[in-house]
Structure formats: structure tokens, C-alpha cells
Fold each of these.
Amino acid sequence: MENDVVAKLLSELGHSTRLSVFRLLVKAGPNGLPVGEVQQRLAIAGPTLSHHLHRLIGVGLVRQYREGRTLYCVAQLDPLREVVGFLDRECCTLS
Amino acid sequence: MENDVVAKLLSELGHSTRLSVFRLLVKAGPNGLPVGEVQQRLAIAGPTLSHHLHRLIGVGLVRQYREGRTLYCVAQLDPLREVVGFLDRECCTLS
DNA sequence: CGCATGTTTCGATAATTGTAGAAATATAAA
DNA sequence: TTTATATTTCTACAATTATCGAAACATGCG
């Protein structure tokens, strides 16, 4: 794993609103949640949520799918699993 | 663990220079490295490194001790271990 | 079509962050 | 005590980020 890639993912997840969004989506399971429901549950303004969602999407932590007018968001675990594994291996034991 | 505490640590580690510094210190082991050596190895300007070191210190990821004129930096693993454990438990399996 | 709902883009603003030169501080050595 | 070395603080500036109202876009319904 590239240092910069790891840093980038950590910085995207390292924002309290984005971390809350991601955790909510993890809890929501494989179907995810509509944007509007995330917005309501976390009490964030629409444009603000949209901004954060796109940053999470940008590093592959979230995917979206549409059903009618409703856009669902689903947490993607693989990128975070890789980073957590990396940190565990490289940063959790002093050499 | 508080959401905000986790987010804060992730954001501090989520910067490529700081991540490099931390990884270097992890590799350096329990004695750590002098600030000057970190600076040289990563080719960073003094004030810039000092800034980043203090941010790492601020979230408990680094500690320093002095020996004569030389200030050593040592990686502190516990906070990261906690966060990695948290992420592993809360964010690596869809409910 | 015209309207309602869900979400995004635009645009502006405030706040935070990263960077590094110059000057200051700390410690030790000559 | 002068000088050298190690590091930080001060300061300023550029860049990025977070926020959200208003307007626009997307989709489906009557």
C-alpha cells in the first residue's frame, strides 16, 4: 500500500461528520440508506452531506444506487479493511 | 470510543508527511529518532516538521525526550491500537 | 404536461491547514 | 563567555476545506 493512499483514506474518514456517516451506513447493512435518511438522522444540511458523501465515494468508502427518485448509499468495506490491515501490520508494533 | 476522538486521530495521521514520520518512528523502535534525523531522512524543512510533530504529540501518537541538545521522538502505539481495534470492530463488518 | 420530491451544483464566506524564512530559545562545547 | 548545534516560535501567505442558502437538475406521479 502506498503511503499517500493510506493517508488519503485516513484523512477522508478523519472528519467527524464523515465518520458518522460511514458508521451509520455500516450499521445500515448491505442495502444502505437513502441520502435523505442519512441527512435526517444526522441533522446535516443537504449540500453539506452531499459534499461529504462525494468525498467518501472518492476514496471508495461509499457507493450509491438509485431506486426511483431515491438515492441509496452503501458502505464499502474493502478499502478500509486494507488500511486497517496495513496499520495493524506496519504501525502497531515497534520494530 | 468517542466518534470525535477517533476522527481526530485519523485526521492527524491522515496526512502523508505525518504518516511518513509516524511510520519512520515505528520502524525506529523504542529509542526513537532525533528530530534532526527525521528531518534529514524525510527532507522536510525544520519548522514544517516541528509543526507536524506537535500535531502527532497532540493526539498522543508521539512522545519526546531530550538527551543533551538532541530531542528524540518515539512513536506511541496505544492510541493507534485502540483506534484500529475500534475500526475493526465497528467499521469492518456490515451489520 | 405541470407539479412534487429527492438530491446536487453553484456560489459565497469563514475557518483551518500546510509551508517555510527569519528570528529566538535551549543546551553543550571550546 | 563566546560559539556552535538542535529545535522551536513567530509570522505571513497560499491552498484547502467546511458550511449552507439559493437555484438547478432528476425522477416519478397525477
Amino acid sequence: MAPSSRPYHHGGLKAALLKAAVETISASSPASMSLREVARRAGVTHAAAIYHYGDKAGLLTAVAVDGFRLLTAQITSAYQAYEDFLEVGVAYVRFAVEHRAHFEVMYRPDLYHAGDPELLEAKAAAAQLLYGSEHPDPGQLLAGVAAWSVVHGLATLWLNGNLPEQLGKDPEAITRLVASRLPPSTGAAP
Amino acid sequence: MAPSSRPYHHGGLKAALLKAAVETISASSPASMSLREVARRAGVTHAAAIYHYGDKAGLLTAVAVDGFRLLTAQITSAYQAYEDFLEVGVAYVRFAVEHRAHFEVMYRPDLYHAGDPELLEAKAAAAQLLYGSEHPDPGQLLAGVAAWSVVHGLATLWLNGNLPEQLGKDPEAITRLVASRLPPSTGAAP
DNA sequence: AACCGCATCTAACCAGTGGTTAGATTATCT
DNA sequence: AGATAATCTAACCACTGGTTAGATGCGGTT
């Protein structure tokens, strides 16, 4: 894309469309994103977008896959950095806030192809990370689900503006506060 | 609606449209609901729906308001029946599952008029109930937010099929299990 | 080098959508 | 009864997602 206006046979159109989709969603919401606007933003026809992704749901599937992979990476590195489950929860909320577009798509399976193999794989990887590894005993599984539920609930309620204002404007701080009100200590390390 | 086909000047069109909207959403999802299909189901033109609700977002606002009121009623009666916070949480999850259409609209403010006065009132009433009454001390507020977050997270994760299958098929049972894994005892009665 | 085949993209079309407007129909009030 | 206001339809608009036929340009083969 050297000069500015003529990388036709674009080279990175597929990736550019994904980026444009995320930007478009960030500017509004997943429901109101239009294929044609995404394509416009990338400087192509909407048929070009359909060529690469099959249909609108296919594009949103790609956004969701990207999101689950990003989440997995961020959670992993948070745990490696702090070795602390609280910080994993905080990282989850931070991801939801920093990547609102990705996050909102990820948890609206009615918008994408929920059965897509790549999607299932990316989602499974994230889930496994989130509720503890492999085949935990039932107690550990429950603890993981509980922890995931709290941070997921916090993140979505925050994004929708459903948390009381008195809690302040910093969702990560709220996460720490809420967590401190919860289980004194939940489970062992994985 | 006595005979079958001729209550023109319909009498209860507005309510019938609301019902039709909920049914349509139940059959698919909020995002894919179309005004015209809702109107078709009610036997009128889509312009009639717009006459009563202003626009599509207006109709969805009505669904959300209805949902928040239903939720408030159900939570209230659950607390009165059991005097137990766990049962309030279970009632929250039950509401989400039994009234999936309402629930999904309520927490997608991008779909409706989030500033609508009726909406704000209904939402505030529910919220006040959910994180404890009136002006609780900060600790109680946090406990309420924590509890709400858990059940909200559980409900949304369940609806999206993001909970591990090993937990079984009964979301209310899962709620009790998860809750038992959480705070030994959270707060005093309201 | 010229050619061919394939990947990529556009143009034109389609049915369906949300919203607007003008007018038809019916209830209600005096 | 007659007029006024509420309710609904019909016709239109710009826009959307998706399909199809064809234009454009890339790569490799000879």
C-alpha cells in the first residue's frame, strides 16, 4: 500500500476488512454495523467483503475468533505476570473494556456462525483457560465457573451502564473491590 | 377479538404488537427481529406499529420496560416467599431463562431508547432491588453488586451456551452449586 | 514472450427493511 | 347528525445483505 490509492488487488484486503469491521463496531454497536459501511471504510465494494468472508455473519465470526484469541493471549500473560487469580479477573474486565467491539461480538452468538470450527477452537481454548485446566475436580470447575461468572457479569453490566455510579469510573478498580467482597480464598493453583 | 378476522380499529393493537414482538424475538433473536414481521404477526401494516411506538427502537424499549417490571415483580415475590438471598439469585436466573426474549433486549441498550423516562424508572426500580435498598453502606452495596454480577454472568453465559456441559442442563441447579462455592456469608438482611 | 488459468474485485440487480407521507376508515364527542 | 381526532393502509424512499455476470490483473507454464 505504498502511494495511497492504488493497491488494487489489495494484498491485505481480508485483514483490512477485519480491522474496518472492528472500527465500525467500536463507533456504534455490533447490531448496527453494516457490511457496506465496513467495505466503504476499506475502499471496496461490499461484494468484495462477501467474497472474502462469505457473508456478514462470516465477517463477524472472524471478529469473534480474533477476540477469543486476543482474550486468551491477554489472560495468559496476565497470569504469567502476576500468578494471581485476582489479576486474571481484572485482566478479563480490562479486555472487555479495551476491546469492547470484540467482546460484544464474542458473546452474541446469534450474530455469527457459532458452529464454525475455528471459532469453536478459539472459544474452547479461552474457556479452558478460564475455568481451570483440563479435567479439574468438580469443585475446581465450579470455582472457575463462579470466578468467570463474576467478572463476566461485572464486565457486561459495566459496558451497559448498569452499575451504580457511586462505584466510580474505573472498572478495574471496581473489579478489585467486588472481588475483595467475595471468597476469602477459592481454590488451589492449577 | 371475538370472531377472528375483524377487530379493525383493533382495540388492543399496542399490546398485541408488544406480545408479537416478544414472540418473534423468542423465535429467533432481538437483532434479527423485523418490525414488518412483528406487524405481520399482528395482522397489520408495519406503519401501524410505527404509529404506536414511534420506531423500531421504541417497540424494543417497550419490551425492555416490560422486562424490567416483570423482573422486579418476580424478584420481589421470590424474596417474600423465601426470605433468602440465594433464592433471589435463583429467581434472577430463572427469569433470564423463562423470559429470554425480554432479558436479551433489556441488556442490549443499543437496541432501544436507553434514555426513555419509563425505561429509566423501571430499570432503577429493578436495580435498587438488586443491589439492596436505598442508601446502603459501601459494603452492602458492593455485596449487592457482587451478587448481581454472579447471577447476571451465569445467566448470560448460560444463554450463550458458554458453560461447560459437565454442569448439567438445569441453570437453576447450577446457580445453587456456584453460589455454594462463593461467599460463606455475605451480608445482613436489607 | 505470449498465454492461460485463477484469484480478486466491480457493477448491476434483487427482495426485504425501517421510516415518511398522504389519505382512507372508523370511533368519539357534542 | 356532523365534525374532530384517533387509528390504520398504501405507496414511496434510501438502504441493506446477498447473488450473478463480467472486468481486471496476478502467477506460472510453455
